[in-house]
Design a protein that fits this description.
single chain; 480 residues; alpha/beta; Rossmann fold; two-stranded antiparallel ribbon; 18 helices; disordered N terminus; binds guanosine-5'-triphosphate; binds magnesium ion
Length: 480
Amino acid sequence: MSAPHIPPQTGAPDPVHQRIDAALHQLAALGGDLVAHANRIGAILWSPPRIVVVGRLKAGKSTLVNALIGAPVAETAALEATNVVTVYENGAPSRADVVSTDGTRRPVPLALGTTVDLGVPPEQVAYVHRYLPSHALSTITLVDTPGLATLTVTNAAATERALIDGFEQTRSASVDADAAVFLFDSMPRTDEVEFLQRLGFTPLNTLGVLSRADGFGRGVLGNRDPLGHAAEHANVLARRLAGQVGTVVPVAGLLAQTSHTGAFTDADARALAALDPLAPLELFDLLDADPAALPVPRDQVWRLLELIGEYGLVHARAQATGGAHQVNQWLSGVSGVHPLRAVLEQSLRRFAVLHRAGRILAELDALVYSHPARDAIRQIVSALRTDPALVPVELLRALRSLLQADPSAPAVDELDQVLRGGTIAEALGLEPTASPEQIRAMAQQKLVAVQAQSVSTRSAAEDTALTALTHAYTVIVRGH
Ligand SMILES: Nc1nc2c(ncn2[C@@H]2O[C@H](COP(=O)(O)OP(=O)(O)OP(=O)(O)O)[C@@H](O)[C@H]2O)c(=O)[nH]1
Ligand SMILES: [Mg+2]
């Protein structure tokens, strides 16, 4: 096989990637059409994981996508709802393809460099694939989706088609996401949680975002600071949604978008500074009742509100004498985008990569079933599956099936703990300082317990889960 045409994106080579890549080289060495299959699967392996942003209509999804990309690429106008699923992937030159529901791809012109002219009704579009050169997209690909709401059935249907139905009917028309960011600005509704469950991820590859944190509770004029209040509430929601999301991060996407896209200028900083002498209530009263009495023209205040919201208007004034640079730094700092990025690029990305490796194993299984060279392919795939490096991939796949089949099975928590552990000691529930002997003894003890449970399982998914755990503990006992 020719070397995979998309190079690894970051850091040291990941052992999961290395083992799968080696197996793909063996597959290609079998010749014939298996070279093309190996290249196709290799392209999936080496492209950044896809993280889909989902949530209620107007939850702030596109604003957050723009903030993370650092450019105003996704439509966020108050009256303009996102109406097609859009994949934002690192690539040059900047361009867009429209992928139709039948899987065909067609390049489309970009109006003003950003807006996409679909050329067909949105119902015929599975998704838009936008490529743009962006450092922020070098490690993850982001997918913006139309909001879920009963009011806009067609938009919600577009999201379902590309994320769920597309996967089952025409693989080529599916965006094949590997992880999700689930946005909500208060407790999510039952239909939103159900939608999330149908995406088929585990809480490990689903991140909750409490959006619009700058307006949380009673907002900036209330007696609690909305950002602090949102942070506290994010912990409450994380506990309530533990079956759906790994954690909940509070974010003020608007403040992050403005500070990361260069939208806020020194002229804006001067207007903001001129408003500094007014008490917050006085400022909003004048804006409503007597705009002529404001120290700057009303339109300028409206612009500031659009850029930094009420919270920014009140609190960023203290930074305004330092110019746009200082205001931007402050906005970025309070927006919560840095902690969000850290979770996205570390834990969420890690589980997204494992999820994708699981998809690749499923592709290889499909070849074992359908290809004339099945015996040779089966050997390669079996060796890959039993490779110690692929233990986490099997554990995540097992957790995913068990959550769908029997979410209350005892193995759910055990799989979750093993997968979350940053080190082998943590995966076994031991202190990070545990000695190799303690680690081996604990793995042996857990192995015996899992084997005892295997005698009376309730479902095939539980069988698979216990087999994956047995393999994991055996690998540790043997000291791999
Ligand atoms: N104050 C404040 N406003 C926000 C924030 N995030 C988004 N908004 C505003 O909320 C409105 C909707 O934001 P979008 O990002 O378009 O929301 P969306 O979820 O993509 O909406 P749909 O695609 O229509 O479902 C816009 O007017 C944004 O400026 C935020 O963090 N704070
Ligand atoms: Mg949107």
